[in-house]
Specification:
The chain has 229 residues and is of the alpha/beta class. 49% of the residues lie in helices and 12% in strands.
Length: 229
Amino acid sequence: MTIRVLLADDQALIRAGFRMIIDAEPGLAVAAEAADGKEAVELARSERVDVVLMDIRMPRVDGLEATRRICADDGLAGVRVLVLTTFENDDNVVLALQAGASGFLGKTVTPAELVNAIKVVAAGEALLSPRATRGLVSRFVAQQRPPAPPIRLPGLDLLTDREREILVLVAHGLSNDDIAGRLFLSPLTAKTHVNRTMTKLGVRDRAQLVVLAYRHGLVSPGDAVPDRK
């Protein structure tokens, strides 16, 4: 099955470069291009895309608001947003993750990294650069003045002890393989636990698990990764 990609960037040259890379890869195809966030939302709805490569700074509607609109639309539940950024330590990247983006990429990404990122996000398997994303979330939360008090998340009561444990490890940036090794599980079992946790909490992917864990006080900036059981 071909992964259909929407390119959302106000610079035509960047879109052209990404299109060349994507269209040259078997199993990937650029379905449409948008020069601003408003157009990106409209095309995501009309072109039945799987992944949106979303620039943050665009005219009319910026990438943050476009991400919010796409991720809040039940009719676009299968669409994944991958944020493109010039600076990977940009606080706007964290805001994009909170808005529902599945991950982020720097615009200096190599062709192989871009292709792999699209495939990973389309599969919903893993957050891109989990440790970098965790660092961004930590920094964003730490800079809030005053710190927002933890909010009780009703879905947490549905989690088993193992799922709650795995949620914390995901928030610390561990991959499924990392979690499996730490908890003496098979990678498939770790993946199953992560997927069940996402289902119970009503989130799309690991990016939202990270954000939820910080937002609801399960992990705090500076916390060490829990010891092996």
